[in-house]
Amino acid sequence: MANREIPYKIYLEESELPKQWYNVRADMKNKPAPLLNPATFKPMTAEELEPVFCKELVKQELDDTDPWIDIPEEIVNFYKMYRPSPLVRAYCLEKKLGTPAKIYYKFEGNNTSGSHKLNSAIAQAYYAKKQGLKGVTTETGAGQWGTALSMACAYFDLDCKVYMVKVSYEQKPFRREVMRTYGATVTPSPSDTTEVGRKILAEHPGTSGSLGCAISEAVEAATSQEGYRYVLGSVLNQVLLHQTVIGLETKTAMEKYGIKPDVIIGCAGGGSNLGGLISPFAGEKLRGEADYQIIAVEPASCPSFTRGKFAYDFCDTGKICPLAKMYTLGSGFIPSANHAGGLRYHGMSSILSQLYHDGLMEARAVEQTAVFQAAEQFARVEGILPAPESSHAIRVAIDEALKCKETGEEKTILFGLTGTGYFDMTAYEKYNNGEMTDYIPTDADLETGFAGLPRVPEQM
Amino acid sequence: MANREIPYKIYLEESELPKQWYNVRADMKNKPAPLLNPATFKPMTAEELEPVFCKELVKQELDDTDPWIDIPEEIVNFYKMYRPSPLVRAYCLEKKLGTPAKIYYKFEGNNTSGSHKLNSAIAQAYYAKKQGLKGVTTETGAGQWGTALSMACAYFDLDCKVYMVKVSYEQKPFRREVMRTYGATVTPSPSDTTEVGRKILAEHPGTSGSLGCAISEAVEAATSQEGYRYVLGSVLNQVLLHQTVIGLETKTAMEKYGIKPDVIIGCAGGGSNLGGLISPFAGEKLRGEADYQIIAVEPASCPSFTRGKFAYDFCDTGKICPLAKMYTLGSGFIPSANHAGGLRYHGMSSILSQLYHDGLMEARAVEQTAVFQAAEQFARVEGILPAPESSHAIRVAIDEALKCKETGEEKTILFGLTGTGYFDMTAYEKYNNGEMTDYIPTDADLETGFAGLPRVPEQM
Known about the structure:
Two copies of one chain form a homodimer. Chain A has 460 residues and is an alpha/beta fold. The first copy, chain A, is built from 18 helices and 15 strands. In chain A, the strands form four sheets. A seven-stranded mixed sheet of chain A has the order 1-4-5-15-10-11-14, with helices on both faces. In chain A, helix 3 (73-79) packs antiparallel against helix 5, helix 5 runs parallel beside helix 6 and helix 11 (237-256) crosses helix 12.
């Protein structure tokens, strides 16, 4: 079929949905470093992780040898409601740019959560249900992950408790109401429902909350109640594993039409989408079967890859979770207040950190006005209103396509379009009004974050 | 292929996209009554309509004999960016209801406008561009139509002026910003940019605007500037014509799998979605080739079909547009303030009005708390967060499926899921908080509206 005409959208048949997730760690010679117990600095054991996470998910978290993990049939059936997602040939964008490059994007926004987050939410909810749990807890900032998890829990009839950063709870009532419509309990954090929340409220009565505080409350809520576990939407190995449906579908769709990408681009916050998209391609690269240029795109205002340290660090600002070895700006790092474009996590998936450290991928930092300019250009010709996060990848895809215009190269560019921007119109409004500004942290700003890195023996 | 297993989602190939729209008027023995000039009560001629509407669209508006109208290639190419839309088998809803009925829905929400409105917006923008116009004007209330038109105009590089009811402009900033992101000028109405706007502002300085006023401003803006025309998102024959892509795709997809619907259900405000979905099926019915039960669903608080009069009436509250013969509550009718569920137009498409009058379809009015209850049930099992408008159809589809559960009938139920509810979370919030109420207008309420019907000779 190599010479078939390429349609605007390549949809796979439901029968072509992946039956297994691909575990890229199995093909990595240098495995991602293990999670460490923050008290002992020893690798976390399954027994230590199981009071917090579901049993089967702990197994997936620690498994770095099995290349393929079966996707349970119940999860495949749920995937069928919104997957396979389309692989789109960006004919209109190519024409607008006047580039000889061929641009493709894998669009993950065609579901109510509006993003790829649902791919892992449904898996995590399934394993919680299978373990006989009553429910799960989590935190959410902007609300994309909380929405996805609420949908997944509604489907399996699981209780879902979301701790939402208070300022988002108040400023993003729409996100909150979507979660409530799916039956989740949404609590503004800090709250008086947990010990840690009450402590923070007593010390800072007027606080508008933080992600670090919401994580602490969600973990306490999970571990202090019978039948609950805590779940997370990015960073962890298990999450990247579930997200490989993105890359596997993309690869199948491309092979069906005889397409091979030269450049693969994805935005990176905690790494769940980028890891999911590139894993099958990185696997080929690791096994020496093919070569691809892989580019992670991050905000210049939160540059974990390009300016961070590869070190053990806390995953949360509350410092209660295990330590992970990753590219990090320090768990105390907070992006500048003018940052509107998402991807504000201080660290990065351990898997991606290791691949980057080993030279298997590169990274670029982009400024937010350039990101929204790309978002607008894309929206006007391709129709889809992209999420600010996804627009980081669009920015670099356009940059690469414009380079091809100069050189005349007919490169095939693939990027991940992770979601839609319906709930990000406040940021678009800033851009539309010409009020958006850029910010690049100074070296001194970064030093403050690095100063908070834990004193793990190996890195002292 | 009649016995192939039915997937969750039936996607057609791009090559199976309709190449022609279907003009149901050609098969109607009783044609819809012509538009009348409000000054002379004589049928509007093409010459009278062309200063307001694009030439080719006027032709389509008046053509009641050609059954098939070619879809220009440029429009087909745009359709390919988001069409064919999926026909979904609601396996999860069926299971939840425990019904032997087979439920299908045609989902039109997978594009940035979030609804079917784009199907006609792109056609109207195309004909404006082809006529060499600079731009188009329109009004928008909640903003769905304005968003679709902005997207279409961005694609064809046409200027787009949207008059948005002031209260929506202020209360729905997200919708407004989506339109601006697509390059539209959005003006809160009434405004000082038109004569009629200035007049209203002088008389009612504190007014929050109305759809009727916004229409008046949009028409004035179109007719007072060189190179502009006015466009409309529903009610008109041309709009229903463009929307038949919905029904044509549905029919092709069903035939591919040997499925024949027994009941076809759609929500009805001005009738664009319902007309588009049912036209090809109604055509078979008109030609005596097949029989289907067709049900229009409307809000009990705005019951044009079930309690309106079949009469000539103004299409706008400003009374400047031609008169149409339709089921109407009177152009002065305004739904009760507690009405949250959309579909608030006082009249109805002339085509659908005639089909209803001739007994080819039936109608049902439903109350809004029951509508949101169905919306929530649907969202939780099928994943998609439906627009309040679409949820009217869901309500009746569920009711019909529950009847089948009682009788044991294995009916095939098809309904139109016109869009998503991301921008309607204020209404969902009311429902989630138990604050939503119902309202059924009294006969006296309706009499007030009927009293404003124009004194057209034929109906005096």
